[in-house]
C-alpha cells in the first residue's frame, strides 16, 4: 500500500469552503426550479449498460464507465472476445452495469418506467453527479454535477418561455447584475429550413457540424468547410449571408432593441427561406420572443442566433445556450420530440435545460461573486482553560446551540495561542473567554475576531448579538 | 434494446414525494451537525481500488464495485489470471478504480491527503451515497446514503458527549417524542478488560463475535458459543453474569434512574474486572455519563450495554448504537485510534457516528411521522381557458413567482376536467380560474382544492393568502 494516497484523475474532493459555494449555487437553482413548479427526483448512479449505450453514438459509448460484474465474472465471459483480445467485445459479457453519462437518458428511462404514476405534463428537476471517461483537462472532469430541469408531455411553447425565464432568474441572482451573459436561441427547424431552401437536405448533418464551428473558426472558416462539402455557390452565398447577419448583431442593445432586432432578423430570414419546416421554426421563435418581451427580462441578453446548433444531439425544436465572453457554454438545452421512443414510449415531446454547475462555480470565483458564508460554519468558540471553566461553559455552549447558533468548545485545555489559531483558521467570528472573574460575575468576555473588540456579555446578550 | 426499461437490482429511483421526505431527513441531520461546528466535505464516488481494499477484510473487498478500465483494457490484463479463469486475480489488472464502500475510508484518505490544509481537531460531516455488491433484500440496498460526522485529531471525551447529544437532538426532532429509542453505549476497552480478567486475551476476537450475537441468540445461546471456544467455567460464569446484568436492565426508567443504573453497573463491573485497560474504559464511560447527566437529555434512552460490540471493525474506545424495538440499528459509531495509519499518518485519534438514512426513512414512514410538504411543490395553478385568458394570466403568474410562491399555468387550453385532475394529482392547493368576468373585474376566482371553497381575490390578496 502506497503511503501517498491520491484520487483518480479527473475527480475532486470538495473542502468545506468549496462545499459552501457549491451548495449556494445548487440552492439558488433549486429554489428557482421550485418556483416554476418543478419537482425533484433522483435516479441511481448505476444504470443497466443496455439502457445507456447507443443513445449518444459510438463516441459517447466509449465515455461510459462500466462496472465489472461481481463474483466469478470470468465464468460468463465471452471466450472469443478474450481470444481475440477484443476489449470492446468482451465488455458486455463482464459488465452489465455502468455509471450514468448524463441525467437525460436516466430521466427518459424513469418516465417510461413510471409512466402510470406520473401526472403529465411532468416538470422534474434533478441535481446529481454524472461520470465520463473523458480525457481530464482544465475545467473538464470525470465526475461532475448536472442541474437539469425538463418538462415532458407538453408541446406548448410556454414551456420554452418558462425555461428562458428560469435562466434569467438564476443568473440575475448569481451574477447580481455585475456580469454580462448572452442567452442565444435558435430552432432546429430553422436550421433544417435553411438547408432545405438551398436544396441540400442530404447534407444536413455535415452542414450543421460546419455551422456549429462558427464560434471557433469564424465565418470565412465555415465557408471553407462548406466548400469541402461540394455545396453550390448560391447555397454557400445564402448560408454566409446568415452567418454574417450573426456577426453584425454583436454589440450592446437595450432589451427592447434586442427583441426588435431578433424580430427583424426572423422576418428577413423568413423571406429568404422557402421551407414549411423553416417557417414553422420562425413562428415558434416569434411566439417565444413575443412572450418574453411581454413579461420582461431581468438581466439576460436574449439573442436570436441562426448559427446555434448545439451538436448533433436529439434536439428537434428550440435550442438554447448561455455564454459569457471568452468562456465555454455555462447552460444549454432545447426541445426534443422523441426522447422516450428508445424505451418504447412514442410521441412524447419534452424540453429541458441543464446548468453546468462546475463552470458556474469558476465564473463566480473568478469574478468574486460569492456571498460570505458566515452562518454556515462555527459562529462561537468557547476557549477551554481547564476543568472548572469547562464545566461552567458546557451548559452555556448548549444554550447557544439550542438557540440555533453554531458553536463549539475547544475539546481540551490546550495553549491559548493554539486555540486562538484554531478559531482564526476556521473563520470563527466570536471567541468566548471564561476565567475565574467571568465565572464569578456571570459576564462572559467575548472577543470579536474580525474587529479585535472585546465586550463583557451575559449569555442572553451573546445570543442576541450573534443572531 | 428491450422495450421494458429497468434499473439494476438493489438500486432505487426516488419520486418527488420520496425526495421531499429524504431531504427532510438530510436537512434535519445537516442542521444539527452544523450547530455542533461540523463542516461539510464531499469526496468522489470513485476511489483508487488500492485505497479501498484491505480496509474491512477480504469479505468487504468482495462487496466493492470495481470500475472497468477505459479503452483497450485487455492489453494490460494479467494473462495468467485469464488462463487460470481467476476472476479475483484478474480484477486488479483491468480495474484500477472502484466505487466507495463507506464514507469512513475516503475520509481517512482525505485527511491524510489534505493534512497541511486542515485545522485540527477537524469536525467534518459528509452525506453521500455508498455502494455495496451485497445480496439485495428488504431494507438492504446496493446504493444507499450515509450521513457521517467525525471529529479527528482530538482524544477528548467531550467529543463523545457531543456525538451522543447530536443523536438526541436529531431523533428528538425526527421522532417528536412519539417513538422510544435506545442509545446503547459501551467501550471497547471494557470488552478487552473483561476478556483479560478471565485470562482469555488470545480469544478476544472470537469472544467478541460470540457476545455480538446476544441480540439474535440470547444469553444461553451466547454461553453455548463460548463453551465451544474452550473457555474455563469460571470465565464463562463471569461473562454470563455480565450478559445477565444486561437483560435485567431492560425496562422503563426516568433519565435520572437510567444514569444511576448505568453508574451502578459500571461500578459493579469495576469491582469484577482486574485489568488496567478495563478500568480505563470504565472511567471513560463514567466521564461521558456524568457530562450527559449534567447537560440533560431530551428524549434518548441512554443505556450502558457491556455486550455491545459492533462487529470487529476499527473501534478502539467508545462504541455507540441506536435502536428501536424490533428494528435493526438506525445509527452507530465509535472511537478509533488509528484510522489514518494505513495512509501513513499515525496516532491520530478520531470518533464518529453515522445515521442510516434509509432505515430512518422507513421508521418515519411506518410511524406516520413526516410533516406535510406543501411548500415544496406547486402552490398555485392557473387554469388555461385559451389565448386571451392565458395572456391575461401570464404576468400574474410571474408576480406570484417573484414573490416566492411556487406556481404554474397549465401549458395549453386542455379540457377543464383534465386541468383540475392535474391540480389534484400534483397536490396543488389553490387553483385560479380566470374567464371574461375576472378579466373585467380584476378579481380572480380562487378555488381551495382542499376545502372546496371559492373566493374572489385580487392578485395581492392571493399573494398574502398563500404566504
Give your account of this protein's structure.
The structure is a homodimer of 467-residue chains. Chain A is of the alpha+beta class and 467 residues long. Among the domains of chain A are: 182-323, 2-Layer Sandwich (BirA Bifunctional Protein, domain 2); 380-466, Anticodon-binding domain (Rossmann fold). Helices cover 45% and strands 17% of the residues of chain A. The first copy, chain A, is built from 18 helices and 16 strands. The first copy, chain A, has an 8-stranded mixed sheet. The first copy, chain A, has a 5-stranded mixed sheet with strand order 13-12-14-15-16. In chain A, a hairpin with a 7-residue loop joins strand 9 (318-323) and strand 10 (331-336). Chain A is globular and about 95 Å long. The two termini of chain A are 49 Å apart. The model of chain A has no long low-confidence stretch (mean pLDDT 91). Chains A and B meet through helix 1, strand 1, strand 2, strand 3 and helix 5 of A and helix 1, strand 1, strand 2, strand 3 and helix 5 of B.
Blueprint of the fold:
The structure is a homodimer of 467-residue chains.
Chain A: H1 16-35, E1 39-40, E2 46-48, H2 49-52, H3 57-62, E3 66-67, H4 79-83, H5 87-94, E4 97-99, H6 104-113, E5 122-131, E6 143-152, H7 158-175, E7 182-187, H8 188-197, H9 204-212, H10 214-228, H11 233-248, H12 255-272, H13 276-295, E8 301-304, E9 318-323, E10 331-336, E11 350-356, H14 357-366, E12 380-382, H15 387-402, E13 407-409, H16 416-425, E14 430-433, H17 436-441, E15 444-448, E16 454-457, H18 459-466
Parallel strand pairs in A: 1-5, 7-8, 12-13, 12-14
Antiparallel strand pairs in A: 2-4, 3-4, 5-6, 6-11, 7-9, 9-10, 10-11, 14-15, 15-16
Helix pairs in contact in A: 1-7, 1-14, 7-13, 8-13, 9-10, 10-11, 12-13
Amino acid at each position: 500500500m502506497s503511503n501517498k494516497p491520491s484520487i483518480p484523475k479527473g475527480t475532486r474532493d470538495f473542502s468545506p469552503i468549496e462545499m459552501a459555494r457549491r451548495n449556494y449555487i445548487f440552492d439558488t437553482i433549486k429554489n428557482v426550479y421550485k418556483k416554476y413548479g418543478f419537482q425533484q427526483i433522483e435516479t441511481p448512479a448505476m444504470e443497466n449498460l443496455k439502457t445507456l449505450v447507443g443513445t449518444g453514438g459510438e463516441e459517447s459509448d466509449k465515455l461510459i464507465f462500466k462496472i465489472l460484474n461481481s463474483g466469478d465474472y470470468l465464468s460468463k465471459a465471452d471466450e472469443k472476445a478474450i481470444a481475440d483480445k477484443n476489449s470492446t467485445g468482451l465488455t458486455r459479457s463482464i459488465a452489465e452495469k455502468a455509471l450514468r453519462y448524463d441525467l437525460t437518458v436516466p430521466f427518459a428511462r424513469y418516465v417510461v418506467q413510471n409512466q402510470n404514476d406520473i401526472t403529465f405534463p411532468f416538470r422534474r428537476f434533478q441535481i446529481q453527479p454524472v461520470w465520463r471517461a473523458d480525457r481530464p483537462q482544465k475545467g473538464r472532469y470525470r465526475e461532475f454535477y448536472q442541474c437539469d430541469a425538463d418538462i415532458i408531455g407538453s408541446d406548448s411553447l410556454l414551456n420554452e418561455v418558462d425555461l428562458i425565464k428560469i435562466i434569467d432568474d438564476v443568473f440575475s441572482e448569481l451574477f447580481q447584475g455585475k456580469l454580462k451573459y448572452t442567452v442565444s436561441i435558435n430552432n432546429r427547424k430553422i436550421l433544417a429550413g435553411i438547408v432545405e431552401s438551398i436544396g441540400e437536405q442530404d447534407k444536413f448533418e455535415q452542414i450543421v457540424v460546419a455551422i456549429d464551428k462558427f464560434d471557433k473558426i469564424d465565418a470565412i472558416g465555415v465557408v471553407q468547410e462548406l466548400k469541402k462539402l461540394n455545396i453550390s455557390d448560391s447555397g454557400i452565398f445564402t448560408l454566409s449571408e446568415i452567418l454574417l447577419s450573426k456577426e453584425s448583431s454583436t454589440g450592446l442593445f437595450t432589451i427592447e432593441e434586442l427583441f426588435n432586432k431578433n424580430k427583424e432578423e426572423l422576418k428577413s430570414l423568413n423571406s429568404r427561406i422557402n421551407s414549411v419546416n423553416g417557417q414553422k421554426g420562425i413562428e415558434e421563435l416569434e411566439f417565444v420572443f413575443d412572450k418574453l418581451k411581454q413579461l420582461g427580462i431581468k438581466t439576460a441578453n436574449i439573442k436570436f442566433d441562426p448559427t446555434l446548433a448545439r451538436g448533433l444531439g436529439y434536439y428537434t425544436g428550440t435550442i438554447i445556450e448561455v455564454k459569457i465572453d471568452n468562456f465555454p457554454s455555462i447552460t444549454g438545452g432545447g426541445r426534443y420530440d422523441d426522447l422516450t421512443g428508445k424505451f418504447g414510449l412514442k410521441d412524447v415531446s419534452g424540453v429541458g435545460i441543464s446548468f453546468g454547475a462546475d463552470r458556474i462555480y469558476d465564473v463566480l470565483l473568478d469574478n468574486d461573486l460569492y456571498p460570505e458564508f458566515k452562518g454556515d460554519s462555527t459562529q462561537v468558540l468557547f476557549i477551554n482553560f481547564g476543568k472548572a471553566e469547562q464545566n461552567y461553559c458546557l451548559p452555556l455552549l448548549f444554550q447557544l446551540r439550542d438557540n440555533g447558533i453554531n458553536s463549539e468548545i475547544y475539546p481540551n485545555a490546550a495553549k491559548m495561542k493554539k486555540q486562538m489559531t484554531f478559531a482564526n483558521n476556521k473563520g470563527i467570528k466570536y471567541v468566548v473567554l471564561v476565567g475565574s472573574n467571568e465565572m464569578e460575575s456571570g459576564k462572559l468576555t467575548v472577543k470579536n475576531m474580525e474587529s479585535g473588540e472585546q465586550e463583557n456579555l451575559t449569555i442572553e446578550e451573546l445570543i442576541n448579538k450573534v443572531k
